[in-house]
Amino acid sequence: xxxxxxxxxxxxxxxxxxxxxxxxxxxxxxxxxxxxxxxxxxxxxxxxxxxxxxxxxxxxxxxxxxxxxxxxxxxxxxxxxxxxxxxxxxxxxxxxxxxxxxxxxxxxxxxxxxxxxxxxxxxxxxxxxxxxxxxxxxxxxxxxxxxxxxxxxxxxxxxxxxxxxxxxxxxxxxxxxxxxxxxxxxxxxxxxxxxxxxxxxxxxxxxxxxxxxxxxxxxxxxxxxxxxxxxxxxxxxxxxxxxxxxxxxxxxxxxxxxxxxxxxxxxxxxxxxxxxxxxxxxxxxxxxxxxxxxxxxxxxxxxxxxxxxxxxxxxxxxxxxxxxxxxxxxxxxxxxxxxxxxxxxxxxxxxxxxxxxxxxxxxxxxxxxxxxxxxxxxxxxxxxxxxxxxxxxxxxxxxxxxxxxxxxxxxxxxxxxxxxxxxxxxxxx
Length: 429
Description:
This is Transferase. It comes from Melia azedarach. Keywords: Transferase. It is a single chain. By secondary structure, the protein is of the alpha+beta class. 26% of the residues lie in helices and 25% in strands. The chain has helices at 51-65, 101-107, 110-114, 160-174, 197-206, 225-235, 246-260, 314-333, 403-409, 413-418, and strands at residues 2-11, 23-25, 37-44, 75-76, 81-83, 89-98, 135-142, 147-154, 216-223, 273-281, 299-307, 348-355, 373-376, 383-388, 395-402, 420-421. The strands form three sheets. A seven-stranded mixed β-sheet has the order 11-10-12-14-15-9-16. A six-stranded mixed β-sheet has the order 1-6-7-8-3-13, covered by helices on one side. The chain is globular, with a radius of gyration of 21 Å. The termini are close together. Residues 121-126, 194-211 and 424-429 have low confidence and may be disordered.
C-alpha cells in the first residue's frame, strides 16, 4: 500500500475558548494513562461527493466541534492540566495511491492499518513534530471513492468512551446539530491529579511483570451472535457463575487459551498466574455518576488473578472476572475504592482487556452514511480489545501478543470453535 500526503494544516475552534475555561485540570485516572496516542480508524464506503467538498465539510465541522471539546485544541503543560489555548488540532489529508479498500477491510491487517494513521513507530511517544497536539486527524482518500478517517487522541485525556462520543458528536455537528450537551466536566475535585507516571513505571518493574517482546503481532477475530450465545450457555453451566455476560464469557475464553498455551519460562521469571487487567468505565460507578459523554480518561481497573493450571474451567475464569469487576463497583458505591493498579502481579503474565463493544462508534454519520468498519490500531503487548460490529450484535476483537504467543494462540482449537479469524493470507495491495 502506498500513501501520498496531500496537505497538513491546523484546525482551531470556530469560537475562542472563554478565559475562565482556559485551564482544564486532569482527573486522577488521567494520570495513569500513558502520555501517548490512542489511534482509531473509521472506514466509509465509496462516496459520490468530490474529495474537496468532503474535505471542507470535515474541516468546518471539526472546527465547530472543538468549541465543545476545547481541551483537544489545547496543550498539556505541567502533567496535571491542559492549557486550553486554542492551539488547534492537526488535520492531514492523504491519497492512497496504491491499495484497494475492499481488500484491506477483508484482511484486517493491523500492520497495514498502521499506515493509515499519522503516527509511525511507537505511539506511546508523542513526536515533537506535532507540538504536543492532543488531537491528530488523518483523512485517507481511496481511488475507489472510499474514505478512512483516522483519529489519534492523546490518551492522557481520552478513553474508549470519550473517543466514541467525540466521533458521534463531530458527525452530529457535521449534520447541523447545535444543541450539544456539555462534554467537559471538572472532575479534579473528586480525585485530585498528580504526576503519577514515574511512580507507575516503578511499580510495574517492582512486580516483575513488565515484558518487552521483540515483535508484537495484532490479529482480528470475529464472534457472531450465535457463537456468543453458545459460548455463554456453555460457560454458564458450571458451579461458579450463572448467566455470564458477553464480556465475561469472551474474556474467559481468551484467558483460557492464553493459559493453555502459556510458556512459563519465556519471561525472566517463572509465570504462576495470568492477571486479567480489566478497564472499567468510571462514569456510571462514581458517586455521583458522571454524564456518559463527558471528556476524560475516566477508567479504573479490576484485576482477575487466574492461576495457570493444566485443567481449565471456563466457568471459574468467568466467575473470577465477574467477581473482580463487582468488587470495584461495590467499593465505588461505598466510596472505599483505593487505587492499586499493579499491586499483586508478581510472577504474572498480563492480558489487558478493554470492552468498547457497546459504544456508539457506528453512529458517526457525517452526512454520507454510517461507517462500514471501526478499527483500533493496537501496539501494546497482550491486549484484547472488544469492539462492536456494524450490525450491532456481534463482537470483533483485536488481540495483540508476541509473535511466539500468537503462533500458538491463533491455532487453539477451543478458541477457534467460537472465534472466526480473518484471512491468514493477503492479496498484495
